[in-house]
């Protein structure tokens, strides 16, 4: 919500061209849908836009629990109808990739804030359950067992994807919605170096781009 307030208060914000609002992609049906919020534009905006040429998800999915990934991707494509992404429109993703430096640091440099609550939120079949492991019901566990899902020191979550996993999410959403897309996803690596402190690391991100063809 803070980001929305900052955007609206910025001198360059133009309400006639930009409609800014907060929305939970995992919200239940009882909450306002993404489509309804897109239609609730201020008077100065003019006619609401019902289809979009570009729908982007930039470090969004990784902030959600694994059990919510599929629903979030469906919502990004359809809203509450299979019409949010316009024919010919592009669906763009960028998020953290498996074995990114940020993930490796969870294991190499555990912080004091993880002393009682482990940073790895997903139960692992290879290790016995402990009293500090999250308590999950069977439906939740089926989504979250053996997943690279972590909690940061500020209590926010993060997740690290493989290209195949993200492609599967998009394919499943398109099948469910009767939408056809063309494109793909891959890993992009970026070398980071701090010569003053004498360290370097490799960041890994998944980049996906799909175009709706039907």
From TrEMBL:
Gene3D superfamilies for this protein: Vaccinia Virus protein VP39
InterPro entries: METTL2/6/8-like, SAM-dependent_MTases_sf
An annotated GO BP: methylation
Domain of life: Eukaryota
This protein's record includes keyword Transferase: yes
Coiled coil: none
Keyword tags: Methyltransferase, Transferase
A molecular function (GO) term: S-adenosylmethionine-dependent methyltransferase activity
Homology family: Belongs to the methyltransferase superfamily. METL family.
PANTHER family given in the database record: METHYLTRANSFERASE-RELATED (PTHR22809), TRNA N(3)-METHYLCYTIDINE METHYLTRANSFERASE METTL6 (PTHR22809:SF5)
Protein name: SPOSA6832_02077-mRNA-1:cds
Lineage: Eukaryota, Fungi, Dikarya, Basidiomycota, Pucciniomycotina
């Amino acid at each position: 919500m803070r980001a929305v307030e900052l955007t609206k208060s910025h001198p360059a914000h133009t309400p006639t061209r930009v409609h800014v609002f907060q929305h939970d992609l995992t919200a239940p049906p009882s909450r306002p849908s993404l489509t309804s919020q897109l239609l609730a534009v201020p008077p100065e905006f003019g006619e609401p836009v019902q289809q979009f040429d570009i729908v982007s998800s930039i470090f969004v999915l990784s902030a959600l629990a694994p059990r919510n990934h599929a629903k979030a991707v469906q919502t990004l494509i359809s809203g509450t109808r299979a019409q949010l992404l316009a024919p010919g429109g592009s669906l763009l993703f960028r998020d953290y990739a498996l074995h990114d430096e940020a993930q490796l640091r969870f294991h190499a440099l555990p912080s004091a804030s993880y002393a009682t609550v482990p940073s790895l939120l997903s139960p692992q079949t290879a290790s016995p359950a402990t009293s500090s492991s999250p308590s999950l019901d069977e439906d939740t566990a089926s989504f979250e067992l053996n997943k690279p899902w972590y909690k940061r020191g500020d209590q926010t979550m993060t997740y690290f994807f493989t290209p195949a996993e993200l492609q599967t999410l998009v394919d499943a959403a398109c099948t469910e919605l009767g939408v056809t897309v063309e494109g793909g996803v891959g890993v992009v690596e970026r070398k980071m170096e701090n010569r003053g402190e004498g360290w370097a690391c490799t960041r890994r991100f998944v980049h996906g781009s799909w175009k709706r063809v039907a």
